[in-house]
Amino acid sequence: xxxxxxxxxxxxxxxxxxxxxxxxxxKSAYDxxxxxxxxxxxxxxxxxxxxxxxxxxxxxxxxxIGGGNTGRNTTIIRSNYLTPEGVKFYDESVRLxxxxxxxxxxxxxxxxxxxxxxxxxxxxxRTSRWRAEVNKHYGIESEVVxxxxxxxxxxxxxxxxxxxxxxxxxxxHAPGAVxxxxxxxxxxxxxxxxxxxEIHQRTEVTGIDVVGGKVTGVQTSRGRIATNKxxxxxxxxTPRILKMIDVRTPLYIHPLQAMVSEPVKPWLDxxxxxxxxxxxxxxxxxxxxxxxxxxxxxxxHSTRSTLDFPEGLSAHMLDMFPFLSNVKVMRxxxxxxxxxxxxxxxxxxxxVEGFYLDAGWGTWGFKATPVCGKTMSxxxxxxxxxxxxxxxxxxxxRDYALTGxxxxxxxxx
Amino acid sequence: xRLPPKQGEWIDRNHPLRFRFxxxxxxxxxxxxxxxxxxxxxxxxxxxxFKYHRPRGLxxxxxxxxxxxxxxxxxxxxxxxxxxxxxxxxxxAVNTFGGVDKDKARILxxxxxxxxxxxxxxAFHSKRLFPLWEKMFRMTTGLGKVDxxxxxxxxxxxxxxxxxxxxGAGTSGLSAALAAxxxxxxxxxxxxxxxxxxxxxxxxxxxxRVVAHPRVRVIxxxxxxxxxxxxxxxxxxxxxxxxxxxxxxxxASGGYEQPAVFRNNDLPGIMLASGAQRLIRRWSVKPAQxxxxxxxxxxxxxxxxxxxxxxxxxxxxxxxxxxxxxxQKSALAARRIPVHAGDCILEAIPTADGNSVASVRTxxxxxxxxxxxxxxxxxxxxxxxxxxxxxxxxxxxxxxFVPEKLPDGAFACGRVNGIHTARSLDGERAGSAxxxxxxxxxxxxxxxxxxxxxxxxxxxIVAHPQGKNFLDFDExxxxxxxxxxxxxxxDNIELMKRYSTVGMGPSQGKHSNMNALxxxxxxxxxxxxxxxxxxxxxxxxxxxxxxxxxxxxxPERRTPMHARHEAAGAVWMSAGVWQRPEYYxxxxxxxxxxxxxxxxxxxxxxxxIDVGTLGKLEIRxxxxxxxxxxxxxxxxxxLKVGMTRYAVMCDESGVVIDDGVVARLAEDHFYFTTTTSGxxxxxxxxxxxxxxxxxxxxxxxxxxxxxxxxxxxxKAKAVLAGLTDVDLSLPYLAVREGMVCGVSARLMRxxxxxxxxxxxxxxxxxxxxxxxxxMAAGKSAGIRPFGVEAQxxxxxxxxxxxxxxxTDGLTTPGEAALxxxxxxxxxxxxxxxxxxxxxxxxxxxxxxxFMLPAEHTAEAPKECHLVIEDGExxxxxxxxxxxxxxxxxxxxxxxxxxxxxxxxxxxIRLTGGTLVAARVAKTPFYDPENLRQKESx
Lengths: 413, 937
What we know:
The complex is a heterodimer.
Chain A: H1 6-10, E1 32-35, H2 39-52, E2 57-60, E3 76-77, H3 84-104, E4 111-112, E5 115-119, H4 122-137, E6 143-145, H5 147-153, E7 169-173, E8 177-178, H6 181-194, E9 198-200, E10 205-211, E11 214-220, E12 223-226, E13 230-232, H7 238-245, E14 252-261, E15 271-274, E16 279-283, E17 289-292, H8 308-320, E18 328-339, E19 346-349, E20 355-359, H9 369-382, H10 395-399, H11 406-410
Helix pairs in contact in A: 2-6, 2-9, 3-9
Chain B: E1 12-21, E2 24-30, H1 34-40, E3 47-48, E4 55-56, E5 69-72, E6 75-79, E7 90-93, H2 119-122, H3 130-140, E8 157-167, H4 171-182, E9 187-190, H5 204-212, E10 216-219, E11 223-224, E12 232-236, E13 241-251, E14 255-257, E15 270-272, H6 273-283, E16 290-295, H7 298-309, E17 313-319, H8 326-334, E18 339-340, E19 345-350, E20 357-362, E21 365-368, E22 371-375, E23 378-380, H9 383-388, E24 391-395, E25 400-405, E26 410-412, H10 423-437, E27 470-472, E28 477-478, H11 479-487, H12 493-500, H13 513-524, H14 528-531, E29 543-544, H15 545-549, H16 562-567, E30 570-575, E31 578-584, H17 591-604, E32 607-610, E33 615-620, H18 624-631, E34 644-650, E35 656-666, E36 669-674, H19 679-693, E37 698-701, E38 706-712, H20 716-721, E39 735-740, E40 743-750, E41 757-763, H21 767-777, E42 784-785, H22 788-797, H23 832-839, E43 845-851, E44 866-869, E45 872-883, E46 888-896, E47 905-909, E48 915-921, H24 931-934
Parallel strand pairs in B: 1-7, 8-9, 8-13, 9-10, 13-26, 15-22, 16-17, 16-22, 17-18, 32-42
Antiparallel strand pairs in B: 1-2, 3-4, 5-6, 5-7, 11-12, 12-13, 14-23, 19-20, 20-21, 24-25, 27-28, 30-31, 32-38, 33-36, 33-37, 34-35, 35-36, 38-41, 39-40, 40-41, 43-46, 43-48, 44-45, 44-47, 45-46, 47-48
Helix pairs in contact in B: 4-5, 4-10, 6-7, 11-13, 17-22
């Protein structure tokens, strides 16, 4: 048992301070206001304070820390993307992830499990090869593997998938990992808080003051704040914030649902994804099977669950793992995914001076948390887009210079 | 211990069942649950707790005893308190190391001081050592074991309908059902227990009336697992899921009796009074000999009557209230049972082996007992109400959350509604209102008197310096764990839940959420109402995946010629939901030889391919041409009747999404095809556009109604000539309607495989006959059926692209070398605005044909290998094959626009890193002037 736990046994009183200082009042002005205390917003606050020495920062949160998609995603971390922009960006993120627990002195349960994208068709095999080749070009561990390799990593799998979608192989990405999602927000929050950043929960942004094309302040449910820099990191609520400054984006909001089983003894080591069956699964350190599928096919701003989601997902899960028939689903939930037309995010400066956007994270925002914090804090501090995000700026839609992560998703018609 | 037989018990003593638990044999009866049978046998320790592996027994006997969870053969996490006993069951407690009695992991209890809330966040995270620690964590985590030999269970589903669905067949639910039915509604009432009547069991007359009512269906042994939009409620039975659509729902799910929190409140023998009542009344089990009754409401004193009747000695009643109403305690006083008002249990003291309670210490002294029954209050069983979208408020007069605003069509009654006394009346009120909501009778607007005394104590929690006062039994959380989480800043209900994991276990907080929010309220100086609750998500009880999955419907589509292909040796491949012949195996020949043989037949003789999987749509109406003008990038208004034209579809961002052929049969009548995989999607998308645009035309999807085949090759014309009345000198790209083999058919003169060809569309039911006739007529010409692979090769030789293979999610027509098809000067088409903008920008990449040197015999590139220029990625191969016609490798690839010049040399990198030289080549590779497909040889 680690000696660090000794202090708990020896102390009379629980020897841990607050992770997040409580601030009763908002100040009248801050150097930077960050909207949204999810992983992205808090990471940006953390790096602003740590790397750029900007500590007169407040993070405004309508609900509670990490209560949005940070606490709703299925925690998969990987960098096997398709475009050079995507691969470089997520690779940097994975690098940051690996040291994060030690940086924070908080165990994020960063668990390197290996990630399979299973292919059931020729088309999916072709896409696997495409991704593998691009990944390897940029030094990412990624390879096309055959069914035997899959079987070895997950021997219990039914490779024939009930006989109607046999697994032909897939893309194997050794660095694929999962982490404890809530703890990521807490770690960034605590680190930012320790450096002087104020986190204000239950504080809603009601307006943004823009004078002459420049941000001058933020209206909140607890009063006005003067500031010249606002970073917006609110995922599914982005359209509502952007409406306040009259900036248009091609974002559209789809629900993304997930579910977990009751805890069972761990039996599944890797993370498995199947595009054809529209499923992904990993087993958490609590023994729960964490399962997800593709986006709901309609645009709706809601986090209400639907019944057909666990029905369809379970049917596909049993194709691959028939022996889960008796395992029970404990809980399902939904988040709002802010999708872009090219499946790449929207990051950086906007037409409103001093207003920075971090949005369009759709279904892939969690894994980007550290690198988003790094690049967005740099962008805010320097009022210039960080080089890793130049492919992700808002003006690419006006210029039709899309960044084709969608290619990987739809190539297998 | 089993009590003497009595009327109304749920067991059948004439049917004994033998079963095994932890290696020992026991006897139970038909009608027992696992838990009641074990309790009847005096077994107290049914499981070990999740974190500290403390012995645990029954608590609720209401399907949330997650410490009494069993492994039954391959079945993990079987809830002993809710699962019927089956003869021959061989059960073990889950997650023990060496059995429930001698669980080695109980040593973890000794280390509990080292393992405060969230301890795992505070250590174990050295990058080097974490993987080792993690292995250990994964060994200790989880409950039951998954058995890989479990077969795929295919559980049926069905749809159900009713006017009023009543959830819960206790007093209030039964009253609601009766009231709604009497007003004329069709009522279904569902209850998770084996019999209706609820937990108070005093409603036998009401049960009889409900069961006898012709408009009421009583569904027992079934739970409502969730409450989805529009009153859509999945009902889970043991072997089936019914998806019930109701017009109104009455939630009468009652309350969860709540545990009291004191030191060692988890010892076996300490249980909820309602749980003990269930054991006594339903299964005639006497759960203890001498008990202390911990009370705080009238329910406790009603329960005491049950306990006394069962011969249980009540050593004392310890009442948390300062004043106990005379009416409640008088019966006990008459029996000289002491009632200690204003008292509490400070701690429970275990027996020497630690496996049961031996006594309790109260303010007034120590009392020996072998059981403690707790009745200190209720929490509403409100998850379904929350899921329905109910706004709840905290009611100080009953110390619980009650519905404040129910969604339209949702009703609540009984304990879940904060009515504990006049439950029958409250049920009647809700039932009447629900029936009226559906249009049956009028809402009688019955007045229901409020409670005069709170049935729930606001603070049933006793601090203890040594802790072990458990608040969450799933997760082994003590009061201090929550206080410490709050101290660390997790001081709102959602954060506290996520950090401490309170309420995250299999019972989803049914017995812990209420006490947790009380602790939070007290620590933060707020009221329970201000603290609020966490979001209650589906499911109410966990649902087996087999129930959700159902029978597993994986439809596979087959063309009418399927059996012909099978007989001809087809090797199948899936194309979306369809099965298509990849090629036809010939004994003694390799796959490649077969494919090349088929291609050779088309090039030099005649071949026949089944193309019935293509999407086949028809559009008619005065504005049909206008519609096609809008959805395809080329022009169709001017297309002559009797002619066809290639058609490419883009989405609004100008990306190519589908292609096909449009044939004009009349001025206002077109027949057109889509890709195989795009058929359903394109039909849906076109229907959507048609709805938006409201043009005067209608679209019909004929994909399944029509069979189609393509006859191609220099001898094709001769083969067909004797079988049709259509004049086969029809021009290239013409379409004709006529008879083929005596069947009315549409003939399209196509040439995409590069030879004279005709696509023959006939009604589905005639497909096989026409196929047979063509094969027979072609026999002397050496006709061969050809598969998808040969077709791909033939098309590639002609340089034709395959949407989805030679395009991806961002490909524009220009990049795919389809500029010629784009008519930007049309008034409008989907994607036009984007394509206009794209046209002003330099093109990033270009699809080109390429060839490898004829002498290349080493490993050939594969699709998606990258084009590398100066060490950087400059494109990728999308199609490649060895061309028998050209005797070399040919293919299509995207290259940087500046590289797309004839004969430009470039390199393709193989998986191993080898660079292969290639040259840009003009397409078509084969018959560049397209002479062969236009003329008959």
